[in-house]
Amino acid sequence: MSQEVSDQDLREAIDRIARTADGGILYLYLQKTLCGVASDDSERALQADHGRRRFAQQLMGLMSEGVSVNGRSGSVTFTVASRDPRPDRKPGARLVGPGSFVPGFSDPAREPPGK
Description:
115 residues; mainly alpha
C-alpha cells in the first residue's frame, strides 16, 4: 500500500522534529554547515558545498518556528579541529601584535624582531 504524503505533512513533521531536544541539536548542525567554509579543493567542490549549504538553509527555514518556540536561540560557539595546533598561543589571542614585523606591510627600514 502506498500513502500519499503532501508538502504540508512534510512541513509538520519537520516542525515536530524541531520542537525536540534532538531537533535543536540538528538545527545547530545545519547552522554550522551553513556558516562553514569549503575546505575541499577538488574539482566542483564549490558547487557541492553550495548545494549542502542551500539544503541546510531551506531545512533551517522549515525548523525555525519550532526551534524558537522552545527557546533555543542565542549565540553558539563550535570548536574547530586544527591540523596545526599552537600550544604557545592562547585561544583568541592576536597573531600580529604592535611589535610584530609583517613583510610587505611594516616599515622596511625597521628590522624584524630577533635579527
